[in-house]
Structures are given as C-alpha cells and as structure tokens.
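Notes, p. 3: input format for complexes.
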Amino acid sequence: MVTIAKTSIAEGTRTRELLMQHPGFRFAGVGSYLPDEIVTNDDLTKNMDTSDEWIRERTGIGQRHVGGTTSSLAAEAAKRAMDRANVEPADIDLLLLATTSPDFICPGTAPAVAQLLELDCGALDIQAACSGWVYGLVMANGLLLQGMKRILVVGSEALDQITDYTDRNTGILFGNGAGAAVVEVDPSGASELLGWDMGADGNYVSILYAEHGDVLKMDGKEVFRQAVTAMQRSARNALKMANLTVEDIDLVIPHQANIRIVEAAWKRLGFSMEKTGMRLEETGNTSAASIPLVLDKVLDEGRISEGDTVMFLGFGGGMTWATTIVRYAGERA
Ligand code: UT7
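Output follows (333 residues plus oxa(dethia)-CoA):
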C-alpha cells in the first residue's frame, strides 16, 4: 500500500484535510448491456408532437432501449464485467448497485442481482440518481482501503417503468441499460483514485422527481442550468484534490443527458469533445448506467491506455453530483 501526500481542498468556507493511503484502484473488468428493443425518435412521433430532427438537435439523442428489469439488466452487465475480470462469484467482496429505478421500493434491488450472479457478499442500492455510479466508485475506493479486495460497482436502469412516453418533455430523453465494473486492489501501484468530489443540494428536489407509483416530472430548463453549474464545480473540486489541471485529463466520461449540457459545461471548463466519451445517440439518458455504458464502449474503441488520467463526471436529480479522477489500469487498457 502506497502512502500519498496530505491534500487540502478549500471550497468556499469548507476545508477538508485528507490523509490518504491508496491500495490502487484497478478496473479488472468492465461490461455493459442494452436490452434488444429500440424506440427510435421516429417511433416517438406516433405518441407526441415532436420530430427526429428536433430531438437530435436539442439533445443529441437518436434512440433509446427499453425492456428488462433493473435487476436483470444489472446481472447481464455484471456477468460481462466478471467474465472480463476472470473472477468467480466468490471473488467479489461487495455489490454496489446504483439505480434510480429499483425493481421494488422495498427491498433493494442489489440482493436480487447478487442472487442472479450467485454472489455471497453484501449487496446494497445507491440512490443518487444519475450520479450514483460515480458515488459508488468513491465508496468502493474507501472500502478497498478497509481491506476489501474486489467490489462490483453496477449502474442499472429500467427507466421505461417511470417514463411517460407520451410526454415530450421527458419521454424523448430516457432509456434502459446497465454498466458494471469490477474494481480491485492493485499492489502494482499502476492505478489510483487521484481525486473525487461528491455533493447534493435538496433545494432542487422539485426540478426532477417521481412520486411513488408515478412517472418522472421535470423542469428541463432548470435541470439544464443546474447541471452545467454542478458539473463545473464538481470537476474543479476533484481536479483540485488531485492537484491536476484540465490539460492533464486524457479522457472525460460525463453523464449522458443532453449533448448541449456537456458542450456548455466544457466551454466553461476548457475540455474538448475530442477527449470526451459519448454514447448518448445510441442510448438516450440511462441515468446511473450512462457512465459505465460509455466506459465499456471507449475501452472497445481502444481510447484508454494504461496510466491514462480519466475523469468520470456525474450529475442528476437531488440535485446530486459526483466526480472521480483515476490513473487508469485494467483490462483492454
Ligand atoms: O439526468 C438529468 C435528466 N434531465 C436532463 O438532463 C434534462 C435537461 N434539460 C434538457 O435536456 C432540455 O431542457 C430539454 C431537452 C428537456 C428541452 O430542451 P430545451 O432546449 O430546453 O427546449 P425548450 O423547453 O426551451 O423548448 C423550446 C421549444 C418550445 O417551443 P417554442 O415555445 O419555442 O415554440 C417547446 O414547446 O421547443 C418546443 N419543444 C419541443 N418541440 C419538439 C419542447 N420539447 C419539444 C419536443 N419536440 N420534444
């Protein structure tokens, strides 16, 4: 285990002093899964007053996948990640499942996923809306420090359960999917979680919510505005903790909500779209699943190499936001 320097982050009036030890943070295996059924933008025009052109121009979305349950999608993505990591169920010490669309209000969905995967370990849901998977990475890093060896961090959504596909405000955006990563200790020292940021502001509950038994309701313009602000603040906090600048980041994977949100935040932060991983056109907004879905794709495309500095940047309902910056190592890198 390597000891790294004391880091101080000043944010407004808060100062956090952190003495970090890191056990490494290796992406042993990554996988994703999209259900077969596709709803195109043209399909949506049958039930609402919209067009393929409008949706593409204003959001960057071309289609979304529907079908499956959060647990079944999660299990498919996790199996792929475990296969790539070449691990058995007994090798997993904990399952963290980020989801906004759990199979049931009670119990959590993670135990059902653990059962499908034949895991014998703790399993719990993280509900931090679209930021959940990035929250999960931060939590996993902390638990690796506590002595766990391998943690499955999954983001899975069956948002078709809580989306009204006749409402052109929300129905154009959301889709189903899952992404998963097996993260593990890395005694080689090649990988590391360099910096992170997590935040929440309950003043904004009312701009994106679903009541029990109901569909998602959203003030799209306000979510857009708050998302651009939150992404900037969170990225800057994590960069400060990691003692890095925007130029040091080799690839950013942002939450996939609206291409214009990413472009607006990047303009202010100085990131380029060339160094950005996107899968929005193919998937729509898959909330907690969106970032690992992109990670799987960019690994397939050979866009991450060992030692690259990669940022994951999420924001969503709550409002919540979260960023992690990793020195990347793992399969396909
Ligand atoms: O994970 C976080 C989840 N949520 C989000 O990320 C949502 C963030 N917000 C957004 O992505 C955007 O606000 C939307 C895509 C929801 C809406 O885009 P917008 O650019 O903010 O559109 P708008 O509400 O300002 O509407 C512009 C025009 C209006 O027409 P007029 O008044 O200019 O004639 C709307 O009536 O576009 C019209 N419009 C539509 N037209 C065709 C609004 N929605 C649609 C639609 N199809 N689906």
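The CA atoms of residues 48 and 167 lie 7 Å apart.
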